[in-house]
Design brief:
- With 439 residues, this protein is an alpha/beta fold.
- It has 2 domains: 241 residues, Aldehyde Dehydrogenase, Chain A, domain 1 (3-Layer(aba) Sandwich); 181 residues, Aldehyde Dehydrogenase, Chain A, domain 2, CATH 3.40.309.
- The protein is 42% helix and 18% strand.
- The protein has 14 helices and 18 strands.
- The strands form 4 sheets. A 7-stranded mixed β-sheet has the order 10-13-14-9-8-15-16, sandwiched between helices.
- Strand 4, helix 6 and strand 5 form a beta-alpha-beta unit.
- Helix 3 runs antiparallel to helix 6.
- The longest helix is centred in the first third of the chain and has 27 residues.
- The chain is globular.
- Keywords: Oxidoreductase.
- Belongs to the aldehyde dehydrogenase family.
- This is Aldehyde dehydrogenase.
């Protein structure tokens, strides 16, 4: 990165510090008007976003509109409808002062200041703009760094931001490691990062040096337990929807299946039949692209290491970055595919007869971002929930919780820290200030 680029980044940061100091962003009227204008500009770029998402990630129009655009618009609508209520001070009960004087107590919400939002490649629109909505409705300014791995989408994001906001309020900085390193050296008031645990550690270390509060949305090997009483047809459909959306590059995708031994063969047969029906000419090129050739080769290595365990799919093309929906059976924790989050369209199967062994295996590993349970026995599902820890969980479904604006979303342990969406985004990007007044 040249000196001119460094100076530009530092100047943008200083401009935002100065603009925040005017307190203009604290006006509710200002926040609402800015978010309304952003929604208008954002929706006007639907075609450009869909085209860029197809080029970078192979997302079809339907998936792009739903998973990337609609979720942002729905978040905007939900937040705009509730912001005035969320922003009101909350009166609290208080004890009587020893002097007999009256005391009043309340909780107020203050913006942090200048925020830094680092977007990921897998859902580069939704996971960049949803945090932005939270930052702005709380009254902050924002510097955004979209992922360099989805360059076409990043360019459209930059165009949208330029049309929607003044740069001293919201701006985009393009770049990779050098730019991110410089940005992390600045005195931001809050950092919001979505990405891998390895980069998350770098971000957290930089924030710790300056005691900057932050949210980390990371990932992990999210387990799916399919019990012997599961409704298999529903299970197959819902696992498919969650696993192969975006070619498996979803932080809360089912990473592997723990299935009861008595129904494993039937479940795999039904999955094969469902995939054949859904993709009669194979899923190669139908479920999206792997983000890079390097990542595709990494995924292919899992198959090369255990060729005899591939029972469906397994075809890929390095040049086009297409990778077929793939099933692996008779997998163990010693296999390469089980050593880290897959983040691709490969679904391994492990079997069990004793759920206690399963829970011991899950609990012995880093806490996942999501946990999925398929069972018609609510007591069984609740027992699994009570004996495990995960960022979030679903029973008889996958991925739906990510789009639920009334639920907090986030990880725990190595899968992340902090929650957002809807009201929880407002709270995440707000400093909760206690105020006591003695009459």
């Amino acid at each position: 990165m040249d000196t001119k680029s460094e100076q530009h980044i530092i100047q943008m940061f200083q401009n935002q510090k100065q603009f925040f100091a005017t307190r203009e962003t604290q006006s509710l009227h200002f926040r609402i008007k800015q978010l309304e204008h952003f929604k208008k500009v954002f929706t006007e770029h639907t075609d450009a976003l869909c085209e860029a998402l197809f080029t970078d990630l192979g997302k079809n129009r339907q998936e792009a509109e739903y998973a990337e655009i609609k979720l942002v618009v729905d978040e905007l609508d939900y937040c705009l409808a509730n912001l005035e209520t969320w922003a009101k001070p909350i009166e609290q009960p208080t004890i009587k002062h020893s002097s007999g004087s009256e005391m009043l107590s309340k909780i107020t919400f203050q913006p942090y200041g200048v925020t830094y939002i680092v977007g990921p490649f897998n859902y580069p629109v939704q996971l960049t703009f949803s945090p932005l909505v939270g930052a702005l409705m709380a009254g902050n300014t924002a510097i955004i760094k979209p992922s360099e791995n989805t360059p076409n989408v990043a360019n459209v994001i930059e165009k949208i931001v330029k049309e929607a906001f003044q740069p001293e309020y919201v701006t985009v900085i393009q770049g990779a490691i050098e730019e991110n390193t410089l940005l992390l050296s600045l005195d931001f008031d809050y950092i919001f990062f979505t990405g891998s645990p390895n980069v998350g550690k770098i971000v957290m270390k930089a924030a710790a040096e300056k005691l900057i509060p932050l949210t980390l949305e990371l990932g992990g090997k999210s387990p799916t337990i399919v019990h012997k009483d599961a409704h298999l047809d529903k299970t197959v459909e819902r696992i498919t929807r969650g696993k192969w959306m975006n070619c498996g590059q979803t932080c809360v995708a089912p990473d592997y299946i723990y299935v009861h031994e008595s129904i494993k063969d039937e479940l795999i047969l039904k999955l094969k039949a469902y995939l054949d029906k859904k993709y009669p000419d194979s899923s190669l090129g139908k479920i999206g692209k792997i983000v890079s050739r390097q990542q595709l080769k990494h995924l292919a290595g899992y198959l090369e290491a255990a060729k005899d365990k591939v029972v469906y799919g397994g075809t890929y093309d390095v040049e086009s970055r297409y990778f077929e929906a793939t099933l692996m059976d008779n997998v163990t924790w010693d296999d390469a595919v089980m050593q880290q989050e897959i983040f691709g369209p490969i679904l391994p199967f492990l079997t069990y007869t004793d759920i206690n062994v399963v829970l011991d295996e899950i609990n012995a590993r880093p806490k996942p971002l999501a946990l999925y349970i398929f069972s018609e026995d609510s007591n069984f599902a609740e027992d699994v929930l009570n004996r495990t820890t995960s960022g979030d969980a679903e029973i008889n479904s996958t991925l739906i919780h990510v789009g639920a604006h009334f639920l907090p979303f986030g990880g725990v342990g190595t899968s992340g820290m902090g929650k957002y969406h809807g009201k929880y985004s407002f709270e995440t990007f707000s400093h909760t200030r206690s105020v006591l007044e003695l009459k």
